[in-house]
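During the no-cost extension, the postdoctoral fellow (Dr. R.K.) reprocessed legacy sequence entries with the updated structure-token encoder. One reprocessed record is reproduced below for audit purposes.
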Amino acid sequence: MSHSLAQQLVAWRRELHQYPELSNEEFATTERITGWLKEADITILPFDLATGVVAEVGQGEPLIALRADIDALPIDEIVPVEFRSQHQGVMHACGHDVHTSVMLGAAKLLKAREKSLPGRVRLLFQPAEERFGGAKTLIKAGALQDVAAIFGMHNAPELPVGTFETRGGPFYANVDRFDIDVHGKGAHAARPQEGVDAIVIASQIVSALQTLVSRSYSPLESVVVSVTRIEGGNTWNVLPQKVVLEGTVRTHNADIRSELPQRLRTLIAGIASGFGARAELNWHPGPPALINTERWAEFSKQVAAQQGYEVQHAELQMGGEDFAFYLHNTPGTFVSIGSNSEFGLHHPGFNPDEALLYPAAEYFSQLAEAALKDIA
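Re-encoded structure tokens follow.
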């Protein structure tokens, strides 16, 4: 079975890769996954979802869950492979096609020994991870009801195939977005004294935001404030009336996260006021920090070592992951598995090594069975 399933996982991954779909638009992807699960005689659960699939293998209690994300990114692919994306401007540049194929493989392996499983394994094929809404959708639909533990993965292009990493406690950071509207007074560029220069004020705010981090928090804390977009003005000889800044805040510390919006508001209001202008902060909270359950992180490492992975302790990640929402409801852990790509996540040249697929599927099937036995 191993050789034929390994080939099947590659075929599934390549088909998913050719036909990627954006968050909450994964209709054909949902149909494909549903069809493949039904072909394997795996039960589809009747959750009310526009996109995404929830399936189950086994009987009785306890119940654990495995999760894969299924959406793609608005990126034009440049990878010279025969199965490159057929949807212009859309690409699986984060490897969700890989994650989906791995969990499909785990489902088939678990199905083959379903009668001996000491409980049930629920498989969540989740939409809209890239927009940080899919996990909340599945939770709201009831997909975590009665689940004792949940496990998920992300491929890691910086790691060789055969390498496994995770850590107990904080792992990925929270993901919050902000935008700042700086309201000045437009004027002719040759007579700046008649206006209030919103560009100069915005520049001061950008610099001050970096100082906020470096001089307000311990250098041992993981805090990032990045301004990623500045927009203002439409010609070379006019001071604009308004400038818009956009950016993101990341940290693993919940207390720092809760106080940062007010700290930013106070800072930008003071700077703008000093120039006779006005600045407004709009805050858009995303997923919280991903915090692995210590017990399950160590458990997952033990199973990985038994499966032949080179197990390493993961460093803190400043990226975000909406798997965090599951872990704020249910114990579990999120792991990294090496995919050995020259280019990283969200890059148009991202090209993971498909050799990771079958070993990862085997790993998650063994992890699920071992977790059921441990809980039982």
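The longest strand covers residues 223-232. The radius of gyration is 23 Å. The remaining legacy entries will be reprocessed before the final report is submitted.
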